[in-house]
Amino acid sequence: MLTKTMKAIQQHTFGGPEVLCYEDAPIPELASGEVLVRVRAVGLNPPDWYLRDGYKMLPPEWQPKVTFPIILGTDISGVVEAVSEDVTAFSPGDEVYTMVRFPSGLAGGSQAYAEYVNVPVEELALKPAGIDHVHAAAAPMSLLTAWQFMIDLGHEVPNPLQPHKHEPVPLSGKTVLVNGAAGGVGHFAVQLAKWKGARVIAVASGAQEAFVRSLGADEFIDYTTTKAEEQLRDLDLVIDAVGGPTTGRFLQTLKRGGALFPVFPLGFDGKDEAEKLGVTVSSVQVRSSGTQLAKLADLLAAGTVRVGVDSTFALEDAKSAHERATRGGTQGKIVLTVR
Ligand SMILES: NC(=O)c1ccc[n+]([C@@H]2O[C@H](COP(=O)([O-])OP(=O)(O)OC[C@H]3O[C@@H](n4cnc5c(N)ncnc54)[C@H](OP(=O)(O)O)[C@@H]3O)[C@@H](O)[C@H]2O)c1
To answer: What pTM value is reported for the model?
Structure first.
């Protein structure tokens, strides 16, 4: 029998890691079409610190309006505690993983830093066999992002940031550069490109070379000593898992007909140059999908795609996990564990 309260990380104001408080919160009530998951691990992602901070990098009119307290987080792995009457696909005791309500929950509606989370059934998938909750929780947002950019968008919902539909490009026999290759999205992008038969050039800081080569990178560039955009030409695809205003520097590295996929597209102002060079620039806003996570579970279970875990922290120590993220130099993902 469940008590009505749980422990969660809540915040009552925007700010730095110090605003994250471990305290009692109501256990979410199940609505139609939902599954209540007892959380075992929570994967961290940049939208967690963007929201913690009030999405300060967005123009004020785009900043989400929230009602405090809020609970951050989207990615969980855990065990089904209960299902609503109309759910037949999952049963109590099933081990599951998911990215909850993204982007619809971007203003605090996903609520993953908690002992219990309710999840729309269509966003849930069985946890990959043979990997633990920590590794499963580390995968959803980063891996779905790489998958939706590179392999299969998987939906028809328009992207508010661009007028055209995103189309993944063929990878077999192509040369693909992954910038930010040791990060959450980047380390999966390297592996998906290799899996599809591309030659992969990975860009990261020098300490990450062995890690990204172990994921399949054929060549490595240390961005702290070498400017990739000055070294490389005639690439087929650049996945820029750093993105932002500097992403346009990669246009010159691409052949006519090539593509630049900035994972963080805000600030790109090279549209005219891209047109002149015959390069497609396209981005995706990652969306929750239980169907895609079920496919990805097979790749994870087979070891075709591996999850890099940089570090783990107890849920109650979410503040230290956010401080770890702020320091940078992470190798894969940061994960919270829940007792
Ligand atoms: N479009 C979407 O739906 C979507 C989805 C997920 C994420 N994102 C965005 O994608 C970006 C990456 O997300 P993530 O989860 O992969 O973050 P992450 O785990 O923090 O990875 C970012 C990586 O970029 C590296 N980096 C930083 N500056 C660099 C530079 N100048 N050159 C090369 N590498 C550099 C970092 O390495 P060091 O720390 O060693 O510098 C880190 O490994 C974020 O901006 C995030 O908001 C977008």
So the answer is: 0.98
